[in-house]
Amino acid sequence: MIWTAKGVISSAATKPRVSSVSEPYEICPPNRDDLPVVRNLARFYVYDMSEHAGFDFADDGLFAAGASLDNYWGIKPEAPQDQWPAHWRGFAHLIRVNGHPAGFALVRQIADGLYDMGEFFIARKYRRKGAGKDIATTMFRLYPGRWEVREMPTNVGAQAFWRRIIGDFTGGAYEESRERFPAYRNAEFIVQRFDSRGR
After folding, report:
1. pTM given for the model
2. Which of 149, 155, 138, 195 lies closest to 176 in space, CA to CA?
3. What would the pLDDT profile of 49-64 be if each residue is shown by its tens digit?
4. Are 172 and 130 in contact (CB under 8 A)?
5. Does 199 have pLDDT greater than 80?
6. Which residues, at least 6 apart from 82, have a Cβ–Cβ distance to it below 8 Å?
7. The pLDDT of residue 46 is above 70
8. How far apart (Å, rounded) are the C-alpha atoms in residues 130 and 128?
9. What are the distances in angstroms from CA 171 to CA 58, 135, 174?
10. 83: left (phi over 0), alpha (psi -120 to 50) or beta
């Protein structure tokens, strides 16, 4: 099953709103075969995040997503620090535009009915064309429940992006705070919380 833009929908149960973007995109269902593709795309995601997270290039000049990415496909990393809590579940969606890999939306279920937008990436070529908003709101509807979306405190661009999308999606019915998260090594984030059910 694939959810596509331009009103070409393969499942009425998960039907997103018709996209306003100029190029057709696909939100692929979770599939372990997509892990190598997402891992390669994640190099560019980590590069984008390095400005705020302080990541350095490895000796070979490459960024890597790390073993914790495997959790989204139900694969348990060897190192304990990379392993998720046992009750978390992952849902990994590869994004394609005109058939080409273009990003990903990686969702965590961190409690019963509680979801977290773990990682969200759209390649630069496809940004500012409406796809990001469409894909994010499709995720909110695909996984109805309570949601948390986090941004690094210095990433004001991401904060503006998510405030706009969540504000439009909920009609302004969301809460925002700045807090530390023990599950993420006590890192500090800006977080928006809202309920996607019935929207």
Report:
1. 0.83
2. 149
3. 655 554 555 555 555 5
4. no
5. yes
6. 66, 67, 68, 70, 71
7. no
8. 6
9. 43, 18, 8
10. beta
d(CA 2, CA 14): 10
Stretch (H or E) spanning 28: none
Judge whether 116 and 139 are in contact, CB under 8 Å: no
CA separation (Å) from 3 to 35, 55, 103, 105, 141? 19, 34, 15, 13, 12
Beta strands of the chain (E only): which ranges? Answer: 3-4, 25-27, 89-97, 100-111, 114-122, 146-151, 175-181, 187-195
Long-range (24+ apart) CB contacts under 8 A made by 67-70 are: 69/35, 69/38, 69/39, 69/42, 69/106, 69/119, 70/35
Tokens found for residue 129: 């064309």
Residue 137, SS3 per DSSP:
helix
For residue 13, the cross-strand partners are none
Alpha-carbon span 140 to 151, nearest angstrom: 17
How much is the pLDDT for 49?
61
